[in-house]
Design goal:
Elements (H helix, E strand, L loop, with lengths): L1 H9 L2 H23 L13 E11 L9 E3 L2 E8 L1 H5 L7 E5 L9 E4 L1 E3 L4 E7 L2 E5 L5
Parallel strand pairs: 1-4
Antiparallel strand pairs: 1-3, 2-8, 3-7, 4-6, 5-8
Amino acid sequence: MILFVRELIFKDLMLKLLSLLLAILTWIALSSIQRGSNPVGNVSLYPGQTFMNVEVVVLSSASDVHDYRVEPKTVDVTVEGDAKTLRGLTSKDVRALVDLTDLKAGTNVWKSIEVSTPPGVKHMKVTPREVRVLFPNSR
């Protein structure tokens, strides 16, 4: 009986210790992910989060009386940040803006979309990148 126990414990001891070490490291990594911290520092384990149908907000000067319209009216925005920040983020925290303060009337005007995000969140992609500005008399 003692021989059986001795062989059970000491046979392939290095492989058993390596397996134990890997199991402990896996447990630490998974438990820290559940708590929201990143076990490997600044390396992002999360590819990002995409908010669909974010409404495009038109910025124009107060003295501007033009009736602007943009197409499309909504865009998709992909953001990146740490897990804890992304968990609390909603589509209302991400804003898609089009600045029309210096725009003159035209027929085929395209403007880039600027994205505003909370601190600690970085926008990665906006689809589409530009919107078409339509004036009341153009279609």
